[in-house]
Amino acid sequence: MLVWLAEYLTQYYSAFNVFSYLTVRAVFGILTALLISLYFGPKLIRALQRMQIGQVVRNDGPESHLSKKGTPTMGGLLILASIFTSTLLWADLANKYVWATLFVIGSLGIVGFVDDYRKVIRKDPKGLIAKWKYFWQSVIALVVACALFFTANHANETSLVVPFFKDVLPQLGLFYIVMTYFVIVGTSNAVNLTDGLDGLAIVPTILVAVALAIIAYLTGNVNFSAYLHIPHLPLASELVVVCTAIVGAGLGFLWFNTYPAQVFMGDVGSLALGGALGIIAVLVRQELILIIMGGVFVMEALSVILQVGSYKLRGQRIFRMAPIHHHYELKGWPEPRVIVRFWIISIVLVLAGLVTLKIR
């Protein structure tokens, strides 16, 4: 929005041309989202407390979590508001990649909101029935996947980038829709499963968003993309602003979500953030690198899949409790130790993912 205003004002005062630079808008994007989160965070927390919108704690979970009961939840509303405001202000709204990302964030945020509403307002511990949650996630993923596929203007937009191989860029064809579907739905659910401890999900989300911002910048630059042998996608560069908005909103939320948390993001935040990482990875054609960088999310999701599968097939559990962060809690690890060690793992995996761009 401000990009258009700056373009108009440039004809009267050339200094406004500074807002045409992507790096400048990215910096303003992160600062805007951060300041919005910090300013409105306390107001939202007080409002949630007044409405008695508090966390529902599982009776079969770690005993240390019983003290979290009643902590305000649905703080993801703050994250989403910060991301949308910052992106709408600083991104080029003529870019279809920006709108595709906002569509996924907003739509999955609505699904998460309904789930949280049923849990904390209507006091239904099951929330939105799993099959309906998965149905709407699927509809959202398929809508955006089909839209991107049928509006693609270049072969690079539907090719698969394989890490470590510079000349392997197979065309996906209709399989692009299938892959996009699984990336968005899978990442959305994986981040949702990770969101079980104070700050556990938001920091890896921030780290992956930073890495995706770097990749978006490189992909959108014709010289860097040629040097790294990755597909050049001019529209991808604008995703830098969206990524920095996610980073700013995440940092602002972490201010209140760090241990011991004053507010939880709820499904309205985790489903939307997971979907955001998934769609951005698809748009910059780095779905496979997302698996590496988001290894903590993958680990959490796999622990649940293995636990459920093992119990149904063998009648035995692999972990003391799934997702895996609860397993370590039940082994006696203090919550801050689990959180920080998972953060460290995430840092290492994000760096490993970035390194694959050069090792080809």
Describe the structure.
The chain is mainly alpha-helical and 360 residues long. It has one domain (2-54, 64-355). The protein has 14 helices and no strands. It has helices spanning 2-10, 22-50, 76-90, 96-120, 130-150, 175-194, 202-220, 222-228, 239-257, 266-283, 287-293, 295-314, 324-330, 335-355. The chain starts with a helix and ends in a 5-residue tail after the last helix. The model has no long low-confidence stretch (mean pLDDT 91). It is found in: Cell membrane; Membrane. Its cofactor is Mg(2+).
Summarize the structure.
This protein has 360 residues and is mainly α.
Beta fraction: under 5%
Oligomeric form: single chain
Question: What is the number of independent domains?
Answer: 1
Distance between the termini: 39 Å
- In angstroms, what is the radius of gyration? 20 Å
| Poorly predicted runs | none
Question: What are the main properties of this structure?
Answer:
360 residues, 14 helices, mainly alpha
